[in-house]
């Protein structure tokens, strides 16, 4: 009986996850379409709310479809309380759960990830701090950008 359930549930879950991923791509595309100052200026107004609400909800839904149920104990720190989050060990796809639960903050990511089809568009909507591994000044530039965003008094989303 377990094998039969797996044969039925696995394709159903895959179809649902692909559908959720395409919805996330569509909402990220809409939020960043004709964005003034793309990548240099923070998302404001409806664009920022769309990314926070839609992508957060879709990410939670995707993890639920995969069989994960996450409960938060305590209160997530607000932007004025903590402009920077630290997630450790920061090494798997489970990091997206933290992003969804904290309102889709900006992340630090490899610059190459922005060129990935579908995922790159979603990642761009999060306004990441892009790290170039070919640039020898990358570490210094990344620290400077994180500091600039943390001191922006709420213009930029939290950084994880």
UniProtKB/TrEMBL annotation:
One of its GO terms (molecular function) is 1-acylglycerophosphocholine O-acyltransferase activity. GO terms for biological process: lipid metabolic process. Keywords: Acyltransferase, Lipid metabolism, Membrane, Transferase, Transmembrane, Transmembrane helix. It is found in: Membrane. The chain crosses the membrane at residues 7-28. One of its GO terms (cellular component) is membrane. Its main location: membrane. SUPFAM superfamilies: Glycerol-3-phosphate (1)-acyltransferase (SSF69593). The keyword Plastid does not apply. InterPro entries: Plipid/glycerol_acylTrfase. Residues 70-156 form the Phospholipid/glycerol acyltransferase domain. Belongs to the 1-acyl-sn-glycerol-3-phosphate acyltransferase family. PANTHER family: LYSOPHOSPHATIDYLCHOLINE ACYLTRANSFERASE 2, PHOSPHOLIPID ACYLTRANSFERASE. This is PCAT2 acyltransferase. It comes from Pycnonotus jocosus.
């Amino acid at each position: 009986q377990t094998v039969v359930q797996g044969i039925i549930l696995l394709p159903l879950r895959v179809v649902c996850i692909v559908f959720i991923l395409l919805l996330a791509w569509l909402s990220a595309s809409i939020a960043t379409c004709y964005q003034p100052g793309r990548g240099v200026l923070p998302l404001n107004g409806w664009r920022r709310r769309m990314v926070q609400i839609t992508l957060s909800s879709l990410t939670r839904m995707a993890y639920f479809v995969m069989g994960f149920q996450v409960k938060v104990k305590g209160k997530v720190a607000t932007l004025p309380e903590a402009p920077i989050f630290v997630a450790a060990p920061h090494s798997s796809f489970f990091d997206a759960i933290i992003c969804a639960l904290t309102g889709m903050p900006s992340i630090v990511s490899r610059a190459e990830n922005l060129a990935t089809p579908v995922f790159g568009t979603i990642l761009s909507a999060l306004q990441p701090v892009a790290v170039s591994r070919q640039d020898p000044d990358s570490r210094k530039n990344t620290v400077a950008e994180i500091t600039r965003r943390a001191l922006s008094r709420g213009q930029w989303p939290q950084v994880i």
